[in-house]
Amino acid sequence: MSKTIIISNRLPVQLQISDGGLSAIPSVGGLATGMKSVHSGSESLWIGWSGLTDEDIPDGLSETIDSALKQHGCSKVKLTKDDVDGFYFGFSNRTVWPLFHYFLEYSEFELDFWNSYKAVNQKFADAILEEAGDDDIIWVHDYQLMLVPQMVKEKRPNATIGFFLHIPFPSYEIFRTLPWREEVLEGLLGADLIGFHTYDYERHFLSSVRRLLGLDVSFNDIYLENRVIKVDSFPMGIDYNKFHEAAKKSSALKGKQRSDLQIKLDEHKKSAPDTKLIVSIDRLDYSKGIAKRINAFEYFLNKYPEYKEKVRLIILAVPSRSNVPQYMLLKREIDELVGRINGELSTVNWTPIWYFYRSLPFENLIDLYTSSDIAWLTPLRDGMNLVAKEYVATRTDKTGVLILSEMAGSAYEMNEALLINPNNFEEQADTLKQAITMPKEEQMARNMFLQNRLKRYNVEVWANEFMNSLKSQKQGIGTYVSQKMNNNILESVSVKYRSAKKRLLFLDYDGTLAGFHKDPQKASPDDELYQLLDQLHQQEGTTLFLISGRDKETFSRWFLPKKYNMIVEHGVWISKDGEEFKLLEKVNGDWMEKIQPVLESFVDRTPGSFIEEKNYSLAWHYRNTDPDFGNKRATELNTVLTSLIGNDDISVLNGNKVMEVKSSNVNKGRASVRILSEDDYDFVFAIGDDWTDEFMFQELPESTITVKVGLQKTQAKYHVEGTKKVRELLKHFINL
Ligand code: ADP
Ligand code: G6P
After folding, report:
1. More confident call, 19 vs 81
2. How far is the CA of 28 from the centre of ligand 1 (A)?
3. Which of 11, 131, 275, 594 could form a disulfide with 48 if both were Cys (CB 3.0 to 4.6 A apart)?
4. Which of 445, 413, 418 is nearest to 432 (CA)?
5. pLDDT digit string, tens, across residues 419-434
6. Looking at the structure, do residues 578 and 627 belong to the same domain, yes or no?
7. Which PANTHER family match (predicted)?
8. Under the phi-then-psi rule, with left for phi > 0, alpha for psi from -120 to 50, and beta for the rest, what region is 545?
9. Closest-lying ligand to the alpha carbon of 89?
10. For residue 220, what is the DSSP state?
11. 619, 530: one domain
């Protein structure tokens, strides 16, 4: 039976050695707490770091650790202290984390960190390769392991690999500052499905893929030569029932059954019944905006002094990454801020801020959520923020107000919360007042919507949606409509080829026989191609036609001495057996002088684009432009041309990074059908890669073997992956 392999840096439990013994504590952080609910039973194995380095583990304890982890369905990746320093404290948390959260000034670009990141990612990939069977599904998590998908795909090309990023993916302008940006993208593209929390992160990622790798992206599919990768957003949910039920259970406890913390909170409420408790819970991280929140609280108390002694802010900051300098500085800053504000504003009866710097057990977390009238979460940037969702889930009587930063991924789904900009103190002060005075009915109405949504789209649904999407992506459902030219099909096509007496082959050039080049003139045929074409050309019973949108001068130079048959400019000109080109279609080129200035104005405004002038057509090439910008301009040009042309004599063809304006009565379909009608062929074959070839696929008779190069949607019957495969296919025809 196939299993799911979850792989992340953090396991759901962290091991600690104290007094020679081993203890396991639950991990904090959205990834571990969320995925814990998905990871269950024998069908799932979770691979990750135990929290202990090789140096921490005394001789003989390794096996005890393995069996302790096994009880939790986990298996460890061994990391040395140097690994953890370079990969975890270094590249993950001093380079990627700040960069992806838009703290560019905190990002350190150290080659040693990067080398360690690569080496440790390889260790994780090796751990997967050791455990994974052929049918298993591999789900890689988060920014610490962005190279793992490619490392696994390289060794297991058929593996099903998903990747989910739990933090924001920054805009291209930020991401491109990373010295190893291409490697990181290529690492991720080893996956079959890449998931993000929000559409914005997805959009930023696709933009970087287009601009930095120059890959084709259509909607949310990325086209590689031999695969299509899907990118999508899946906002992570929580285990709603777990939080809701825990809250119910906690409120049913009486007297001494209650936790010490709950007893303290209840005493406080009893002594000051009209005081409001505001809670904030985060890892101590600069992305969470804790210091700003404390400053905003002071601002609020000064703006609305009537609330002094009437509200209390409880800050639970969970220690995190304390070896990283920025986190140490932040700890000091917050200690000082809390000290100063409490020192300045406290009265005999009142301390404005209760500050806890520790990790509390789950029960205490629930106590804090259920006892607080308001949750105030102000991240400056946050991939999702599950605490916001957990607070709402624990409000069993539906009261309570959530104030949430717009910069958190969860804000997109929690419109009924009070959304704030964490940098705007004025707005926050007013929002706090609104929350404190919000009538119960309004609180309940807002929370009802929020709870229904959280209940429905819980973490299990989230994981299932990701998994289903991954599986259907892998099966190729909805990706392409043609069949892959596999060995069986190739064999049956070869049988037909062999038994045929008169064969006719139409071969497109760019993107089919030869790859693309920045300068089209440089994409000239190589020796291997000449040899291949020579052999086909000389084969008895075979008529070969090169059929292209290229101009006749270029093809004359490249192929006329070879005497191959050629159709160029999409069907305007024809040359047979080495004769000069002749007109195949009567065409009118009067329109060209009107269209030329329009194209020129697009060239002027689109750096990197240029016009190719042919005898009866004009082509605007935009392969070398900024990909996003080029696509946008192409759409614009299409609109302009369509409105200008306004009659049926001229048409616009959208090719592969080229838009061509030409007479409507010319296309490869019409030209190929004309050639076909000149003789009695019993085997017809057409192969090409772009829209201009679709005319052949459509117009040639049903019995034609039509082959698309690439994975885009097509009318062709079969597809092959790239130019390399085209040549292999043609060699097959030669070596029958
Ligand atoms: P991040 O992933 O950046 O830490 P999230 O808000 O998405 O932020 O996730 C934090 C998770 O950590 C929540 O699921 C929360 O319940 C959990 N958590 C926070 N504090 C504690 C704590 N003291 N003990 C245990 N779990 C905690
Ligand atoms: C965030 C990250 C997780 C990480 C967690 C806790 O949620 O997305 O990958 O595990 O913070 O951070 P830590 O460094 O302790 O693992």
Report:
1. 81
2. 5
3. 11
4. 418
5. 999 999 999 999 999 9
6. no
7. BCDNA.GH08860, TREHALOSE-6-PHOSPHATE SYNTHASE
8. beta
9. 2
10. T
11. no
Q: Residue 393 C-alpha to ligand 1 middle, in angstroms?
A: 14
The domain that contains 448 carries what CATH number? 3.40.50.2000
Nearest ligand, CA 7: 2
CA 641 to chain centre: 34
| Most confidently modeled range among 116-120, 521-525, 713-717 | 116-120
Residue 476 lies in a domain: no
> For 253-265, what is the mean pLDDT?
93
Question: Which ligand is located closest to the Cα atom of residue 365?
Answer: 1
- Minimal-distance CA residue to ligand 2 atom 14: 321
Among 91, 124, 142, the mutation site with the greatest number of ligand 2 atoms within 8 A of its Cβ is 142
- The amino acid present at 153, given as its one-letter code, is K
pLDDT tens digits along 588-634: 888 898 899 899 989 988 989 999 998 889 999 999 898 888 988 99
Residues 73 and 187 in one domain: yes
Report CA(386)–ligand 1 centroid distance (Å). 7
DSSP 579: P
Find tokens 């899907």 and name the residue. 230
The model's pTM is: 0.82
Residue nearest to atom 12 of ligand 2 (CA): 29
User: Could you read off the pLDDT of 30-66 as tens digits, one per residue?
Assistant: 788 888 878 876 688 999 999 999 999 988 888 899 9
Q: Which of 136, 508, 510, 693 is catalytic?
A: 508
Question: Catalytic residue at 508?
Answer: yes
- What residues pair up with 504 in beta bridges, in sequence order? 543, 684
Residue 14 inside a domain? The answer is yes
Residue 8 per-residue DSSP state: E
* C-alpha separations of 236 from 22, 79, 174, 690, 720 in Å: 32, 29, 24, 38, 37
